[in-house]
Design brief:
The structure is a single chain. The protein has 2 domains: 3-69; 86-444, Beta Barrel (Porin), CATH 2.40.160. 19% of the residues lie in helices and 48% in strands. The protein has 5 helices and 18 strands. It has helices at residues 3-14, 18-69, 73-79, 199-205, 385-390, and strands spanning 83-95, 119-121, 124-132, 137-148, 151-163, 170-178, 210-219, 225-233, 249-260, 264-275, 280-282, 296-313, 323-340, 345-364, 367-382, 401-412, 415-427, 430-444. Strands 1-3-4-5-6-7-8-9-10-12-13-14-15-16-17-18 form a 16-stranded antiparallel β-barrel. The longest helix has 52 residues, at 18-69.
Length: 451
């Protein structure tokens, strides 16, 4: 085909289409113009909103600056909203032997270390109040109500302030608190796995060791959990004495722990407590002259060391469904000094030691069972054995021991009903079967317990 004919043919074909293309182009130009107008309007709206936000932000900054300039405002706002909780812990106790005749051979049981009141009793109930004072301090106080020798007593169990957010993992606590000696000692009684204290706690501390003083702890910046710390106190709690002015006891401790996979975790701790009691009185005494028993007093040095090991297992780390806990603690107490009363004096060298092992198995979300074994020993020497007898310090070398079995029902995380039976051989003269029925309920904002 010749070029001229081909050109004419193409022109003839395109001629009717050209007006259509022209109309489409006009429509596209109009649509683009409309889109440009819409975008410009939206951009203006966004710029206006941004300007309004900047104004509001400046107002907030000014308000924050005003709050910071008033140092009491944060404290006042929080002071009317503390977390308040109550733990009710009633108990029924029954013994095959007379509870008033209870003895722990090799130890002089002091304070609240004796058996709980037979029959129904209040147990130990608590009221706790806590709150962040401000951005620097946290405060907590626990008031305890318990039965002691047939009477209801009210006491301040803990009352302390603690720092928040100090740099480098440091924390300072000041006031009244449980000493960080051992594992169970820092926990409140309602958080224990059994209704009564381990025998070694009963013999050394009269159930628990508290202190009025200062605690310093440091969390090391390591992948494995590691904490070291110490306390200084006034030394007026048994086995210290109330004759000190100023610092009467001190303690150092270290603990570490971690996870093994997702199912296992562990913690180990060591601690050492030291005091120099002056005229520490043993309440046990015997009347040799018919005019009343003179108390036996101890003066000297007391050193107590502890090692504790805890292992926990739970499938996939879910402790709510099924779990197992194995806990063991060992204490060694070494005392050197003198014993005396109004008529006699003797040099004294005493060693008291022992511990316990307990295993707790939660086989369903609402049921747990546990076994515990206690065993103690002592080596007590004095230049006058009569003073040891007067102080209720048995020096025969007998090893007290006890077996305990418990079962508990947990309707919810706020309530517990427990049954426990002990076969107690605390003294060579007594072989006691002990039964405890206990309920524990928590009301209010109760914080989670530590590991």
């Amino acid at each position: 085909m010749k070029p001229l004919k081909l050109t004419l043919l193409i022109a003839a074909v395109l001629a009717p289409v050209s007006p259509i293309f022209a109309d489409d182009l006009g429509d596209l130009k109009a649509e683009i113009s409309q889109m440009r107008a819409d975008y410009e309007q939206r951009i203006q709206q966004l710029e206006q909103r941004l300007a309004e936000t900047e104004v509001k932000q400046n107002d907030v900054r000014a308000e924050i600056a005003t709050v910071k300039a008033a140092p009491t405002s944060s404290k006042n706002n929080n002071s009317f909203n503390p977390a308040i909780s109550m733990v009710l812990n009633g108990q029924f106790s029954d013994y095959s032997e007379d509870a008033d005749d209870y003895e722990l051979d090799g130890f002089s049981v002091q304070g609240e270390g004796g058996l709980a009141r037979e029959g129904f009793s209040l147990g130990e109930s608590e009221i706790t109040m806590s709150a962040s004072v401000d951005q620097l301090l946290f405060g907590q106080a626990t008031i305890a109500l318990h039965d002691h020798e047939g009477e209801t007593e009210v006491g301040v169990e803990e009352a302390f302030i603690e720092t928040l957010g100090l740099n480098n993992g440091m924390t300072v606590r000041a006031g009244r608190f449980y000493s960080p000696i051992g594992y169970l000692n820092e926990k409140h009684i309602h958080a224990w796995n059994f209704a009564d204290a381990p025998l070694i706690y009963r013999g050394l501390f009269g159930n628990q060791l508290g202190t009025d003083g200062v605690k310093l702890s440091y969390l090391l910046p390591t992948d494995l959990y590691a904490e070291i710390g110490g306390t200084v106190g006034n030394g007026d709690r048994h086995p210290g004495s109330g004759e000190h002015s100023g610092i009467g006891d001190w303690l150092v401790y270290a603990k570490t722990g971690g996870d093994i996979g997702t199912n296992h975790s562990w913690q180990a701790g060591v601690s050492h407590w030291q005091a120099e009691p002056e005229d520490r009185a043993y309440s046990g005494g015997h009347d040799h002259g018919g005019g009343g028993a003179d108390p036996v007093l101890f003066n000297g040095d007391t050193d107590i060391s502890n090692i504790s090991l805890i292992y926990k297992w739970a499938p996939n780390g879910n402790y709510r469904q099924r779990s197992f806990t194995l806990l063991g603690e060992y204490f060694y107490s070494d005392e050197e000094g003198s014993l005396n009363n109004s008529a006699e004096f003797a040099t004294y060298d005493g060693e008291q030691y022992g511990g316990f092992v307990e295993g707790i198995y939660q086989f369903s979300p609402q049921w747990r069972t546990g076994l515990r074994y206690d065993r103690l020993g002592s080596k007590l020497r004095a230049s006058d054995d009569e003073l040891l007898t007067d102080a209720d310090l048995d020096f025969s070398g007998y090893h007290p021991q006890r077996y305990s079995l418990m079962m508990e029902w947990l309707p919810s995380e706020f309530s517990r009903v427990r049954a426990q039976i002990n076969h107690d051989k605390s003294s060579r003269d007594n072989d006691d079967t002990q039964l405890f029925l206990q309920y524990t309920v928590s009301i209010g904002a109760h914080g989670a317990h530590s590991f």
